[in-house]
Every structure is written in structure tokens, then in C-alpha cells.
Design brief:
141 residues, mainly alpha, Arc Repressor Mutant, subunit A, 46% helix, elongated
Length: 141
């Protein structure tokens, strides 16, 4: 499953901030550590705040902080908050509808992979990422 850049950045921001969820992060801190284009980062931070995943604290000592306990935020919450639509019946080959009268050889296999991926996103929280010491890879490719 491929995510959009918006979703990738949302996961990266939330994963990084979950490493110390009591800290206030400024946009500059996040920019320097995550190297997400600054204007896009600011837009993402505002959007994640409006979605209730971050709290924006105004003022000279302000910044952004995760809004809920880490065990209450699943990866699926972040994916959905970034407006990523996970198609339930998307074809492995990219067709909107199966063009064949018979299912292709990948139909059921792809369904299993898609369902397993959704289950992982639905059941993995930011707390789980930190507990397992496996936060999302933040390095640039």
C-alpha cells in the first residue's frame, strides 16, 4: 500500500512527536529534524491540530503537542486524518472494477494483504511504536 506524501508526512510528524509527547515542538524544531518542506509542514501541523491529533499552543513559548494519550491514537487515525482514503476494494492492477468476468489470480490474495494492512493500521498505536522501539523511519531516502 502506497501512501501520499501528505500521509507520509503526517505519520512522520506524529511518530517523531510521540518520542517525547510531553514536549512542545515548534515548527522550526520539526523542520530541522524531519526536513519536511517548511510551508508544507506548517500546513500539516495546522491540519493535524484541526483534526484533534495535535494541540497548538500560541505565544513565544508555544508550539505543538500531541493532543491525546499515545495509546488512543492509531496509525489508521493518522492516515484517515490526513485525508488518505483507503479503498476497500481497490484492484491490485489498478482497475476501478474488475474488468474480467472471472476474478484474476491476485483478487483474493490482494484482498488478504489489504485486510491485513488495515488491521495493522487499526490496531497499532503511537504507544506501540514507542514500546517496541520501532518508530517510523525518519531518515531521508
Amino acid at each position: 500500500m502506497n501512501f501520499t506524501k501528505t500521509t507520509e508526512y503526517g505519520l512522520r510528524i506524529m511518530s517523531y512527536m510521540s518520542l517525547d509527547n510531553s514536549k512542545l515542538y515548534t515548527a522550526n524544531d520539526l523542520f530541522n529534524n524531519l526536513q519536511i518542506p517548511f510551508r508544507y509542514l506548517r500546513k500539516q501541523l495546522n491540519f493535524l491540530s484541526k483534526q484533534g491529533l495535535l494541540v497548538s499552543i500560541q505565544g513565544k513559548q508555544g508550539g505543538y503537542q500531541i493532543a491525546k494519550p499515545l495509546h488512543e491514537i492509531t496509525l489508521l487515525n493518522i492516515v484517515e486524518a490526513t485525508d488518505e482514503v483507503i479503498p476497500e476494494n481497490k484492484c491490485f492492477f489498478g482497475f476501478h472494477d474488475c474488468p474480467l468476468t472471472e476474478k484474476c489470480s491476485m483478487h483474493d490474495k490482494w484482498g488478504d494483504v489489504r485486510d491485513a494492512t488495515l488491521e495493522i493500521l487499526r490496531t497499532t498505536t503511537l504507544f506501540d511504536l514507542n514500546k517496541e522501539k520501532c518508530s517510523i523511519n525518519l531518515s531521508l531516502k
